[in-house]
Design brief:
45% helix, alpha/beta, Rossmann fold, nucleotide-binding, Glu/Leu/Phe/Val/Trp_DH_dimer, binds 2-oxoglutaric acid, globular, glutamate dehydrogenase (NAD+) activity, 416 residues, binds 1,4-dihydronicotinamide adenine dinucleotide, 16% strand, NAD
Length: 416
């Protein structure tokens, strides 16, 4: 009988970090340092709802390791947010920043809530309340938040305004993913998807295939998934399946992406408009060349890994594939571009946004795109090279590349 899989993402992250640290020859003390964030703040945020009742929301901000520089990472508004998830997400941010060589450690935040059931006013009060609650541990040189699941540039704008009021000076560098007029960067809105498409092209090159011959299934149609669908469609690839939290649609002849993009709502939902849908699990198992999970964690598990038909998986989402599934897929010869490499385009352009805020001088979209492409291609080559030369799977290779600089910096600071 197959053992039931442990779906706790902090546990699985710690297992892989442990393996990476061992392979690189670091001590067990280094593992003890890096297996958990240095700091986790648990906050309770009282918010007056539109019905005049007060509701207390729970939130977190985790800061994994600041040996290289300030911590950096998004804020998630989602009903399933929990402390272990936020901790794991902060560790992934550290690894991601290591892979694309940014002067940051990892941070991540989350609030347990469902923005789909909240008014604009309630969301604004919650966003401001969260910033007040975490204001002592964040800042442009301490910990710099950004968008993640169900947060967006409007929420970043409210948060930046609240932080600037608390500090009594304009602080655009406190947060990234802002609207352009408030110091946002060209290309941040689309950066995660841009990075993913660069990774898809690298993976196809290894497999000797062209993008315009490829069929793609994307799970999730929000910021990452929908822009990716648009870019793939514009590049001549065939997007055959997409999904949102309510279900999925699939057509092996290709979906009408422009029409789906027109009809999606601000939470990345569109499938409710269709009478014939399949489930989110079914869409993963449909025929395609490339599968892009772009929604949430634990979507590809030991239950469905053997049924995946794609030959390449590029993880736009954080943590979509379990350790067991990674092993099954790797044994089957599926090329996995792991999350901490594949979706790093978002934090790369966030870094560019922070640099532009600090210098007060802004770059063009073409400059951002070319800088992003350079970093992502280099990162892919580094990870692929470790995968080949050390004979480890792509996920472990990415962890090894991601953890190295942070371990070195922690050592040189005299922490270990
Ligand atoms: N937005 C960004 O810049 C970055 C996002 N990511 C990751 O990409 C993934 C998606 O993030 P965004 O596109 O920003 O979020 P989003 O909130 O814009 O979109 C999320 C999408 O996933 C779907 N979804 C939500 N819960 C689901 C569930 N239980 N089952 C199936 N589908 C579900 C939603 O309907 C929506 O289509 C997340 O894992 C996030 O951490 C990673 C790097 C950067
Ligand atoms: O843009 C950023 O700083 C971080 C984005 C993020 O949360 C992620 O990469 O998971």
């Amino acid at each position: 009988m197959i053992a039931i899989e442990n779906l706790n993402v902090l546990d699985s992250t710690q297992i892989i970090i442990g393996e990476a640290i061992k392979k690189l020859g670091y001590s067990t003390e280094m593992y003890e340092l890096l297996k958990e964030p240095l700091r986790v703040l648990h906050v309770r945020i009282p918010i007056q709802m539109d019905n005049q009742k007060v509701r207390i929301f729970t939130g977190y901000r985790a800061q994994h390791n600041d040996s290289i520089g300030p911590t950096k990472g998004g804020i998630r508004f989602h009903p399933d947010v929990n402390e272990d998830e936020v901790k794991a997400l902060s560790i992934w941010m550290s690894l991601k920043c290591g892979i694309v060589d940014l002067p940051f450690g990892g941070g991540k935040g989350g609030v347990i809530c469902d923005p789909r059931e909240m008014s604009f006013g309630e969301l604004e009060r919650l966003s401001r309340g969260y910033v007040r609650a975490i204001s002592q541990i964040v800042g442009p040189n301490k910990d710099i938040p950004a968008p993640d699941v169900m947060t967006n540039s409007q929420i970043m704008a409210w948060m930046m305004d609240e932080y600037s009021r608390i500090r009594e000076f304009d602080s655009p560098g406190f947060i990234t993913g802002k609207p352009i007029v408030l110091g946002g960067s060209q290309g941040r809105e689309t950066a995660t998807a841009q990075g993913v498409i660069i990774m898809i092209k690298q993976a196809l090159k290894i497999r000797g295939k062209n993008l315009n011959e490829a069929s793609v299934v994307i799970q999730g149609f929000g910021n990452a998934g929908s822009y990716l669908a648009q870019f793939l469609h514009e590049s001549g690839a065939k997007v055959v399946g997409i999904s949102d939290v309510y279900g999925a649609i699939y057509d092996e002849d290709g979906l009408d992406i422009p029409s789906l993009l027109d009809r999606r709502d601000s939470f990345g939902t569109v499938t409710k408009l269709f009478s014939k849908t399949i489930t989110n699990q079914q869409v993963l198992e449909q025929k395609c060349d490339i599968l892009v999970p772009a929604a949430i964690e634990n979507q590809i598990t030991q239950e469905n890994a053997a049924k995946i038909q794609a030959g390449i998986i590029v993880e736009a989402a954080n943590g979509p594939t379990t350790i067991e599934a990674t092993n099954i897929l790797t044994d089957r010869g599926v090329l996995i571009v792991p999350d901490i490499l594949a979706n790093a385009g978002g934090v790369v352009v966030s870094y560019f946004e922070w640099v532009q805020n600090n210098q007060g001088y802004y770059w063009s979209e073409a400059e951002i795109e070319s800088k992003l492409q350079d970093r992502m291609e280099k990162a892919f080559d580094n990870v692929y090279n470790v995968h080949e030369t050390r004979g480890v799977n792509m996920r472990l290779a990415a962890y090894m590349v991601g953890v190295r600089k942070m371990a070195e910096a922690s050592h040189l600071r005299g922490w270990i």
